[in-house]
Amino acid sequence: MASNKKYWKSVEELNENSSIVETLRNNEFVEPIPVDEFLGDKDSLSASSTTRRDFLKYVGFSTAAASLAACEGPVVKSIPYVIQPEEIIPGVADFYATTMADGFDFANILIKTREGRPIKVENNNLEGSRTGANARVHASVLSLYDSTRLKNPKIAGKDAKWADVNTKVKASLVDASASGGNVVVLTNTMASPSTDALVASLVAKYPTTKHIVYDAISESNALDAFQSVYGTRALANYDFSKANTIVSVGADFLGDWQGGGFDAGYAQGRIPKNGMMSKHIQIEANMSLAGANADVRIPLNVAAQKQALVKIYNIVTGASIGTSKIDKYDEAVVKAANQLKAAGSKGVFVTGLDDVNAHLVAIAINQALQSAAFNPSDAILTRKGDAKAVTQLVADLKAGKVHTLIMNGVNPAYTLANSKEFTDALKSVKLSVAFSLKEDETASLTTIAAPVPHYLESWGDVAMTRSNYSIMQPTIRPLFDTKQFQEALLSWTDNTAPYFDYLKGFAATSLAGKSWNQAVHDGFVAGSASALTAGALNANEAASTLAQAKSANFDLVLYTKVGMGDGQQANNPWLQEFPDPITRVSWDNYVTVSKADAEAIGLKNWNVANGGLDGSKANIKVGNVTLESVPVIIQPGQAKGTVGLAFGYGRKTGLKEEMQVGVNAYALYANLNSNQSATITLASGDHEFACVQLQNTLMGRGDIIKETTLEIFNTKDAKDWNIMPMVSLDHKPTAAKDVDLWDSFDRSIGHHFNLSIDLNACTGCGACVIACHAENNVPVVGKSEIRRSRDMHWLRIDRYYSSQDTFAGDIVVKDAASGLFENVSTFKDMEHAAENPQIAFQPVMCQHCNHAPCETVCPVAATSHGREGQNHMAYNRCVGTRYCANNCPYKVRRFNWFLYNKNSEFDYFMNDDLGRMVINPDVNVRSRGVMEKCSMCIQMTQAVKLTAKREGRVVGKDEFQTACSAACSTGAMKFGDINDSESDVAKLLEDERMYHLLEHIGTKPNVMYHVKVRNDK
């Protein structure tokens, strides 16, 4: 029987109104522990010799408990709808089809919204779509919530109203028309038929108006070549899935070459099927994504590339243009040309050389091959820029011949090499207008800065190819006082129709039988392209000109990083922190040089005590322009006599201070040509890089990335090229998969999720990394923390170089070493990459081990195994011991050293209310002291199950997805339920190329890899 007796600690408690009683009741300690004078003084704390045991005794349990309480997540109260919108169900995502088109990136996509907020980009996988969202497209949703966006119109730097803007512009147009003054509309490639029609209406109303298309990264030479042959300003399209032999000279077609989007077709031919796979030969200066994935890579300077192109042309077409010998690679070039010719219609040739003659010769080669992969009829329309017209515009501005300049989607004050001439001449224009997302380098100098909505707030149409007509629809109401450029054009031409009505009427002739609603629902209309007839092509003359090429000094090859592109999204922290696939450096651009050239000039890279990477600086001079103190990366595979430098960095205006990094490569982009003759010299000072991967090579560890050749793959058993690791059991060699120290469970009932990664299909593009960021609220930590190896990426893509010419050669060297000293010396030497190494990419995330080492060492059971194969993390249980990270052989766990949410020290997107609108409410925002890692997107698998349950059906065959598998346009990542025998992942589990990472450890992962096969013959 319970006692009802009441006890008092003191007589004072008999007094009900006593303040002392209240104090005792509410506080464990009457007086606070006086720790501030010790813990609050950093100097005395660092100088103290107090031991850890003394420290804990001094602090006491209550202070430790307070510290733990400080690590708990904040409580956020939600306010329900007063009147719930019919189309929104709280807690359920909606998806809208739309099209991204910013003048550089174009893609048919889906936008995931939660309670009216766009939070994630997905690929639109309907048949006929132009999809394959890259890292920048996936990151573009965060740019919607950029707090530095231009929020309202400005006239002469002061806030204004749109009525005043329209009045001022119309008055200037009327004045120009009356006085014969020239009006120039300068835009990027909008690829929008309705906008082109509106611009044409403006020209018709004001006849002195001229429309000039300016692309920051020019494809003008390729456009000129195609136009001269086929009569339309466009670029040839390619379907690499139809090619057995691919030869590229300077074209990074797995990156941003001619708009990108070729990787899905390429990957189809790279997975060995029926003993066949495509052969890819890459000739280039910079190490690119295409070069890293090639079977054979030939590093040459620009002049030698032109010689190689002519040699290939001679062999394929039978021409006899005289060429020079290409040093030690002449034989390899001839072999590549013969293989291309033998492939016939199954061969394809591409080039990225910034020379009109190179593109004319490329067209001639593909015509001679009758290449099935070469498709000029369905030409690409997302590049229309005219370099000559832009050059003439600058001259006209300097001469005072432009009355009114209206710009949309361009930033010439940043992207023009002669930007100083442009900005000085801009002062002579009577009225200058910049339609822009931000008050950038150009908009801050114009008379009127007109804010435009983000593409996720806009209506529009886009013709990406001659067979594709796409619709852009808004997924959220405009956040600020913005107007589309098209609305302004309608106003200036006295057309009172809203742009939506205009667009709907205009699109009626392009819907190919679909209704408007169906086109908006699907996001695009796929039609057929009428054939283009080729005109006369004097390829011999073009080839003869190329054969005269010679290199002097260094060849500077300007390029775009897959993370930053042309620099439009330089204020996007996801992209700034995105590691470059090749160098693994984030938060920077840099000049890449070969090891031989670096040694000759005195350029170096080295690691410092905290694990960071440092490097020399260099001065680069092109003509009369010098770019000073450019950081240096010594890049394996860089052709001797060449240097590379990425566009998109060095911006200052309209960006947060943390994003103002790198140098502006556009300063060296003379005449909008990416190939320049340069001199490079050592500069004073050192540079600190934020590099997420400091090891270079596999050092012969073939159990991490397993490789073989197509010949061995076809002629030998899997046990010879997919070697099963052996362990000792009862003193007998036994297959590691047959030995188990754990009790196993029956996982054949219910779902059991696996993720498959095919190393043959993975190009290292990194779209999955950004998609994971968006889906799982991964924080951005900044350059300083990245430099300390504190990156928070749940998914990393390891890049390895071979130490010898091939990875197979590395194994031979490793196996030949014997004895302690020889082994130490051998492995030390193997850490240095070859002059022209093979490269392998390997995505690594939590392997979700069925026998997970992390689970056994967690003292609070924060990490535990799920019935469906996932390794779970209970964030509110984690106390941050980091034992799990120490025990993880894959090193895939991340520790929150700081609170990255609502912390002014990390002023990226989680520090302001607008940026936090991108946060996925289905995933916790982690607090300081908490361990985190890949969850296999458990919220996505749960959503699929709940949807199927609500609809009264079973889950579809391959309906389950993770963020990374959904983002992977090459199909390298496949996710699903291995208990469903019909699923792709169940079949991949039984594939003879399947293996597990570090299988000999016995962790039994739920992530599988597939042996990389190289076609090296």
TrEMBL record:
Gene3D superfamilies assigned: 3.30.70.20, 3.40.50.740, Formate dehydrogenase/DMSO reductase (3.30.2070.10)
Pfam families, per database record? Fer4_7
- Can you give the residue ranges of the 4Fe-4S ferredoxin-type domain? 753-783, 837-868, 869-898
Which NCBIfam families does the UniProt record give?
MoCo_extend_TAT
Name recorded for this polypeptide? TAT-variant-translocated molybdopterin oxidoreductase
